[in-house]
Design a protein that fits this description.
It contains 10 helices and 13 strands. It is α/β, with parallel strands linked by helices.
């Protein structure tokens, strides 16, 4: 019997990609709502309560409203908004954090899909907190650079406008300068930190691809650790994952030899595009006692629709990597 799936808010970037991915499943029926009934509460409620699973690709308030319309205890929900990422009773949808996280997703009826920046950040920090290498009050700072698709249709239109001297395309643009980005709450809670990180995202003139950059002063960790040890820790932690890959260690020798994973001695942020992968790089300089954790992913893939489909696979009992 086919599973019935509804994508509520299917015209946005995440909703469109989820619909496209669902088209690969032979045993899934994607339930549609008539265009002129999109705002009809009764019709939406009827559909929300007749499907096996619904993806919410809506603004936060609309997502909360949609959840309030569901009274069928068997309807499962994956919310792609920020509305429920720190809400009690909701499961955070990043299964690679630990076996317990994956099992919680499998059993859950309410899963909140992580934000794109938060996905990369939490994959970088959670193992260090969980293994007690990093103290929970460590003063974490993070920069993230991303393509403009992460801002949705409105920002895409601004970047792709064919106006003369388009100010959006002149140079990378740091934003959220109040240091209160909407992903901060989930980054703090689900990484295990007790103090909010200093986080500054940067949007640049390319469509998609994201990387978080997190500097580490190794002397501030709970025990002395060199770069290669840090790399080995991550390799072991993510050794059995389908979509998380810890890349070869980078030190001065790797940089000088222009290692294959580097791009002219630098870093290609878009290398995970069109995949559901996240790749983690550990860069070390033991002389200075510093390291850098860089995690890259497709902000529309593992950072949005790919991660949502992965969660659906787990919740519906499919192979986790099916159609990914």
């Amino acid at each position: 019997m086919k599973k019935k799936i509804f994508v509520d808010g299917s015209s946005g970037t995440t909703g469109l990609e989820i619909n496209e991915r669902l088209g690969k499943y032979k045993d899934i029926e994607v339930v549609k709502i008539d265009y002129d009934k999109r705002r009809d509460i009764k019709e939406r409620k009827r559909i929300l309560n007749e499907v096996d699973l619904v993806f919410l690709c809506l603004p936060d308030d609309a997502a909360r409203e949609a959840v309030g319309l569901i009274d069928n205890p068997d309807t499962k929900v994956i919310d792609a908004s920020t509305a429920h990422r720190t809400t009690k009773g909701w499961t955070y949808g990043l299964p690679e954090l630990s076996p317990a996280h994956k099992e919680a997703i499998r059993l859950s009826k309410r899963v909140s899909n992580p934000g794109c920046h938060a996905t990369a950040f939490n994959l970088s920090i959670y193992p260090l907190i969980h293994l007690k290498i990093m103290p929970p009050d460590y003063p974490v700072s993070c920069q993230s650079i991303t393509g403009y698709s992460g801002g949705g249709k409105g920002l895409i239109e601004k970047y792709e406008a064919k106006t003369k001297d388009n100010p959006y395309t002149k140079a990378p643009r740091p934003y959220s300068l109040g240091l209160n980005h909407k992903h901060l709450a989930e980054m703090t809670m689900h990484s295990g930190l007790t103090e909010s990180p200093v986080f500054l995202p940067v949007v640049a003139n390319y469509y998609k691809g994201l990387a978080t950059l997190i500097p580490i002063h190794t002397r501030l960790l709970n025990r002395s650790i060199e770069g290669r040890q840090l790399h080995q820790l991550f390799e072991e932690y993510y050794s059995n994952q389908n979509f998380i890959k810890v890349m070869p260690y980078i030190d001065e020798a790797a940089i000088q030899s222009n290692a294959a994973d580097l791009f002219d001695g630098g870093f290609d942020i878009t290398a995970c595009n069109n995949t559901n992968k996240a790749e983690i790089f550990i860069i070390g300089n033991d002389v200075k006692g510093v390291a850098m954790i860089i995690t890259r992913l497709d902000n529309l893939g593992k950072g949005a629709s790919g991660g949502a489909i992965q969660n659906m696979n787990i919740m519906l009992g499919y192979e986790e990597s099916l159609n990914l």
